[in-house]
């Protein structure tokens, strides 16, 4: 039986396959974000994200990046495939040791699912937000590294 220390590995790719990912290690937390900027990059829905240690994430393939100021005052840099436009991950200037990977590019089946919904005050009126999720109207506290 696998213990707590078992190495978790995830693989993934963008929609066109030009960018591939390999992640070793457990997520530090998963979030569904309904902020306006996420709606704009996610075709109206939320983004679904899993936070990992940057050192645990290996990306192969060319990435393009963009950035915007986050509501917190930090700068959010997001990386995407220049060929298909798929969002791969984001990184905050305040937490360079972490990467926020878009769950959609991680191969299924996997055990990742949002455990909290954030920025729900910006969600559209028609949004169906799972009431079982921890709910933050705006930014939640930063993830704590689990020992
Ligand atoms: Zn692609
Ligand atoms: Zn967002």
TrEMBL record:
Family the entry assigns: Belongs to the Gfa family.
InterPro entries: CENP-V/GFA (IPR006913), Mss4-like_sf (IPR011057)
SUPFAM superfamilies documented for this protein: Mss4-like
Gene Ontology MF term list: carbon-sulfur lyase activity; metal ion binding
PROSITE patterns on file: CENP_V_GFA
Name by which UniProt lists this protein: Glutathione-dependent formaldehyde-activating, GFA
Keywords for the protein's UniProt record, in alphabetical order: Lyase, Metal-binding, Zinc
Classification lineage: Bacteria, Pseudomonadati, Pseudomonadota, Alphaproteobacteria, Sphingomonadales
Domain annotation CENP-V/GFA: ranges: 10-121
